[in-house]
Design goal:
Blueprint (H helix, E strand, L loop, with lengths): L6 H14 L4 H17 L11 E2 L4 E6 L3 E6 L6 E3 L4 E9 L9 H7 L2 E8 L2 E9 L6 E3 L6 E2 L4 E5 L3 E6 L4 E3 L6 E2 L4 E5 L10
Antiparallel strand pairs: 1-14, 2-3, 2-13, 3-11, 4-10, 5-6, 5-9, 6-7, 7-11, 8-10, 12-14
């Protein structure tokens, strides 16, 4: 299955391939190759949602602290992003920035274009940050302030390679380790006590 916001792109490339087949076989072949590559990049496979707080993205954990987990998504990972918990979207903030390579963590986190999604429930405030990289210059967000989301629900995507950050309130601890490969919808954190504070903007 292709992610809904990208179906027109894949369809346009497919149509171009057929059109060019009557004009230039080499350009037609290139169009079909691009169609296949796009279909891989924009795939939207089903995910089993399992855990207290689930991963918002596929990729590799390349930074983790008490309340923050960062996932690097390479060009071969699925780029669909999901809500880590059920709750109400209380804020969505888009911030402009540059487009450093997503694998350059420090520059990416500090300078890159991003979209921040804040989700609140009885356990506190959770924050998902979508970060655009050198290739991923288009952040797609499917939710807006006031929406209610279910855990594991699709909330957006970042086209091509990129980075996603998950921040959790006090009272939760991550159950993953740096360098581990994870998929969206898999458990990444568990509750260890009553939340005493939320993330501050």
């Amino acid at each position: 299955m292709i992610e809904s916001s990208c179906r027109k792109i894949v369809l346009a490339e497919l149509v171009a391939g057929f059109v060019f087949s009557f004009i230039n076989i080499y350009i037609s072949a290139l169009s079909f190759v691009l169609t296949a590559v796009s279909a891989i990049f924009f795939r939207d496979p089903p995910r089993k949602i399992d855990g207290e707080v689930v991963s918002p993205a596929d990729g590799k954990v390349d930074y983790i602290s008490n309340r923050r987990l960062e996932i690097f998504m390479n060009i071969f990972d699925c780029h669909v992003n999901r809500s880590p918990v059920s709750g109400k979207v209380v804020k969505v903030v888009y911030r402009t920035g540059s487009f450093p390579p997503a694998f350059m963590r420090k520059r990416s986190v500090e300078r890159a274009e991003r979209n921040e999604i804040w989700i609140k429930n009885d356990d506190g405030l959770f924050k998902v940050t979508q970060i655009a990289g050198f290739l991923a210059r288009r952040i797609v967000c499917h939710v807006k302030e006031g929406d209610f989301v279910e855990k594991g629900q699709k909330i957006g995507m970042i086209r091509f390679g990129s980075r996603v950050i998950l921040e959790v309130p006090n009272g939760f601890e991550f159950v993953r380790v740096k360098g581990e490969k994870i998929k969206a919808g898999e458990n990444v954190a568990k509750k260890v006590g009553r939340c005493s504070a939320s993330i501050k903007n």
